[in-house]
Design goal:
Largest sheet: 4 strands, antiparallel
CATH class of the largest domain: Alpha Beta
Radius of gyration: 29 Å
CATH topology of the largest domain: Arylsulfatase, C-terminal domain
Strand order of the largest sheet: 1-2-3-4
CATH superfamily of the largest domain: Stage V sporulation protein G
Structural class: alpha+beta
Low-confidence stretches: none
Distance between the termini: 107 Å
Shape: elongated
Protein name: SpoVG family protein
Pfam families: SpoVG (PF04026)
Order of helices and strands: HHHEEEEEEH
Number of helices: 4
Strand content: 15-25%
Number of domains: 2
Keywords: Cell cycle, Cell division, Septation
Length: 174
C-alpha cells in the first residue's frame, strides 16, 4: 500500500499536491462550521467552491500590436491554468481613449454580435482583463522604447556625418 502511494506521488505530483491542499481547506472549513446548521454549511461550501477552488488563473497572454488607426489596438490569446486557451481576444480603445478587452465574438443574422467565449464570474473576468491590459501596456512601452532608441541612434548618426563632412574653405573663391 505504501509503495503504491509512493509510485502515484512520482507519477502525479501536482495532482496529489492539489488534492492534499483541497482536503486541508475543507477540513479547516468543516471544523469552523460545526456550530452552523446544515443549510448554512451547504451555502458556505458552495461559496468556497466558487471563490477559492474554481477560479482559474491566467497563465499566459500573447498579443500582437496593430499599427492602424482603428479602434482595435491588439489581437491575441490567453491561457487559463496552462490547460485552456482562448484565441481572438482584442484590445480596443473607446471614444474616450480608454482601453478595454473584447472577447471573441461572431455576428448574428440580425447584425448584432454574440460572444463565443467569455468568463462567467466577475472575479475571472477581472483577472483575465487585467492580465491582458497589463501585457498590452508592457508591449506598448517596449515599442515606444525601441522607437526612441532608433530615433536617438539616427540623430547621433546624422550628427556624426555632419561632423565628418569637410568644413567649407575660407578664402577667395575663383
Amino acid at each position: 500500500m505504501f509503495i503504491d502511494m509512493m509510485q502515484r506521488q512520482r507519477q502525479f505530483p501536482l495532482q496529489i499536491q492539489l488534492l492534499n491542499s483541497l482536503k486541508l481547506r475543507y477540513l479547516r472549513i468543516l471544523r469552523a462550521m460545526k456550530q452552523h446548521s446544515h443549510r448554512q454549511r451547504q451555502h458556505v461550501l458552495a461559496t468556497i467552491d466558487r471563490k477559492e477552488i474554481l477560479i482559474m488563473q491566467v497563465s499566459e497572454v500573447r498579443l500582437n500590436l496593430l499599427k492602424t488607426d482603428t479602434a482595435v489596438k491588439a489581437i491575441g490569446s490567453f491561457a487559463l491554468d496552462g490547460a485552456f486557451a482562448v484565441r481572438g481576444v482584442r484590445v480596443m480603445e473607446d471614444k474616450n481613449g480608454h482601453n478595454f478587452v473584447a472577447f471573441p465574438s461572431r455576428e448574428k443574422q440580425d447584425g448584432s454580435y454574440e460572444d463565443i467565449a467569455f468568463p462567467l464570474s466577475k472575479e475571472l473576468y477581472a483577472s483575465i482583463t487585467g492580465a491582458i491590459i497589463d501585457e498590452y501596456k508592457q508591449q506598448v512601452e517596449k515599442q515606444e522604447q525601441a522607437q526612441n532608441q532608433e530615433a536617438s541612434q539616427e540623430q547621433t548618426q546624422t550628427e556624426a556625418e555632419s561632423a565628418a563632412a569637410p568644413a567649407p574653405k575660407k578664402g577667395k573663391s575663383r
